[in-house]
Amino acid sequence: MSSQKFTQYLLEKYAADFQKATNHPFLEQSGNGSIDIEPLRSWLKQDYLYAYVGYPKFASALLSKLHFPTPFFSHPTPNLSKAFSVLSFSLANAKRETQFFVDTAKQHGLDVFSQEANDGAEDGGKGLLGEYNEVTRAYVDFLQATGALGSVEEGFVVIWTMEIAYLTAWQYAKTYHKELAAADPASLTQTQQALVKFVDNWTCDEFVEFVEGCAEIVDGAGIEIGSPLAERCEEVFKRCIWLEQRFWPQL
């Protein structure tokens, strides 16, 4: 049995792919405040659809698969208790987070429900996929399929992968963010003011702790490297990273 943590194994094996998913020109320009309003608004719309439609259904399906001992909560294992806490938090937080960036975007003239925000969708939101672009639709479908058909372990690998990719991406953006964050807010454009709030929120200590908690659940799930379960979990990790690489808009 390998002593290496499963999360560490995945990040090391697919380091180049993970970097490609989390280091993107969109993030650089979002960090330094030079991003054009159109791709930012379009990305916010797609991220909203993913987070508000796909994520809660997936987390709910995963929560329903947790097996609690009888009588209820009599002797839950530490990993089971943490899994319940993480999923409960993620469901509540999905609503808070989507409302936060919708409100922030609207406050600063980045209305994600405007027609301009449909630029990334098929035929401006009038095609067969509606307001979704192809990658967002694929991501939501993947989440729903994994929630319905995947194991609990696969599900938590997906949650951890999505969250660590998101955190790492915006931490990367923050490396370009120092001048913007230090500037007088009155000297910034409305878009730049929104970006300061977004970057700070998506790299906050609470989010870091949440991602660390997700990793602890995966590493405590007894996924033995090289086992059939590990191979299935590795496959969903790769699919997540593939989708993350393509979720950023073309500039």
Textual characterization of the structure:
The termini are far apart. The protein has 11 helices and no strands. 36% of the residues are buried. The chain has a single domain, classed as Heme Oxygenase, Chain A (Up-down Bundle). 69% of the residues lie in helices and 0% in strands. By secondary structure, the chain is an all-alpha fold.
CATH fold title? Heme Oxygenase, Chain A
Q: What sequence of helices (H) and strands (E) makes up the elements?
A: HHHHHHHHHHH
Give the structural class: mainly alpha
Largest sheet: none
Q: Say how many strands there are.
A: 0
Which ranges are low-confidence, i.e. pLDDT below 50, for 5 or more consecutive residues? none
CATH architecture: Up-down Bundle
Q: Please report the distance between the alpha carbons of the first and last residues.
A: 45 Å
Give the CA-based shape: globular
Helix content range:
55-70%
Range of strand content: under 5%
Radius of gyration, in angstroms, nearest whole number: 19 Å
Helix count, DSSP H or I runs of 4 or more residues? 11
CATH class annotation: Mainly Alpha
Into how many domains do the coordinates divide? 1
Multimeric organization: single chain
CATH superfamily: Heme oxygenase-like
Protein name: Thiaminase-2/PQQC domain-containing protein
Domain Thiaminase-2/PQQC: 19-65
